[in-house]
Amino acid sequence: MAAWSSASVAKFGVGLVVSMSVGAVSAICHQTRADSLLASSAHENDAQQDLSRGSKESPSFAPIPAMARPRQAFCQEQEPLPLPATSRFRFTQARFFSKHMDGSHPPEEHPWLAAAPAAPKTLLPEERIVTFVVANAAAGKINDLQRDWSYLPPHMHAAGMEALLQNHLLVGFPRTINAIAAVHEVGVSGGSEWKDEEKGDAAFFKARGEEALCSIYGVKYERLRNRMEKLHPVLNSIMAEHAYGRVIAREGALSMRMRELCVISVLAGQDVLPQLQSHLYGARNVGATLDEITAVVAQTELPWGQEAHAGARDMLKDWLAASLARARTLSSEQARTAQLRDPDANLTSTASRASSSDAPAPGPAPT
């Protein structure tokens, strides 16, 4: 092997010295860290022993728990968390949607209105979009929710916020909070009535909740309350005072008819058929037509999928059949009651029907 030159030897020597110095410094740092940890542990042990002996011996050395410090100082010590990647994406998307808040997205152009089965004229396009909003919010589909909101006219934003607030009764706080945050990213305009919180004590909200329950459930109200009382008395009270008294009975931007249609839109996708059946009945009681209810159920596949749509559709069919049977029974009972009250009127009606049956049948229609 060739002999090393003096320059090579010098370079090797310098490198060796530097390497040994770095290793020594690293060892010293590690030792210092270990000594510091041991000293800290020993200090904490001494402090715990002082506390166990009593605060009278050494009151000045007792450690102060973190939560015992002033709340403001404690909160200021916390560093803000970085914005998650999903939130940054949604914010970018929200800026895109905000460009269309000036009305360049008419409600009639919402893509789901063309994909969903036709609805009656009494269910306005913007009202139907509100039912899309709450369904996508309940399903956790933030992108679809923000798209829906971009098609909602500003004068309907208060109704949309009311509908989203109501969602926490059906899907809980987490998805409701995320949904409201998402529409704020897009932009909330129009009136501010959705921010108003009505004042009243527990008795006021309980009475108002019971009134709302009566209007929705009608003759089934007493049976509902009795069943809820047996299931859980506290849940029964919360249902009347909070769910219906503080939320569903709120006056302003969202009518009771629209509230029930929104409830149907949310429940239709959750495999909660008993509750869906109750609110199909309730929607009729507060003014929704059968065609409007059918249209909302028919659009279930868009936010919730085919399986959910099949279950909701079958429930609607069963409910309609049962409602028709009840109507026929009620009609026959009313006829029997009228006959008992006025037999002469019934005989006159029978004679009239008989005379009309003797009349000749009309001829064929002209062609």
What report would you give on this structure?
It is a single chain. The chain is an all-alpha fold and 367 residues long. 71% of the residues lie in helices and 0% in strands. It contains 17 helices and no strands. The longest helix has 48 residues, at 6-53. The relative contact order is 0.07.
Give the key terms.
globular; about 375 residues; mainly alpha; about 70% helix
Let me know the number of strands. 0
Q: How large is the count of helical segments?
A: 17
Poorly predicted regions are 9-14, 16-22, 50-64, 83-103, 345-367
Mean pLDDT: 78
Structural class based on helices, strands and sheet pairing: mainly alpha
Portion in helices: over 70%
N-to-C series of helices and strands: HHHHHHHHHHHHHHHHH
Spatial shape: globular
User: What's the end-to-end separation, in Å?
Assistant: 121 Å
Task: Summarize the structure in short.
With 367 residues, this protein is an all-alpha fold. The protein has 17 helices and no strands.
List the helices and strands and how they pair.
Elements: H1 6-53, H2 71-77, H3 85-98, H4 111-115, H5 125-139, H6 142-150, H7 157-171, H8 173-186, H9 202-217, H10 221-231, H11 233-248, H12 256-267, H13 273-285, H14 290-298, H15 301-304, H16 306-341, H17 343-358
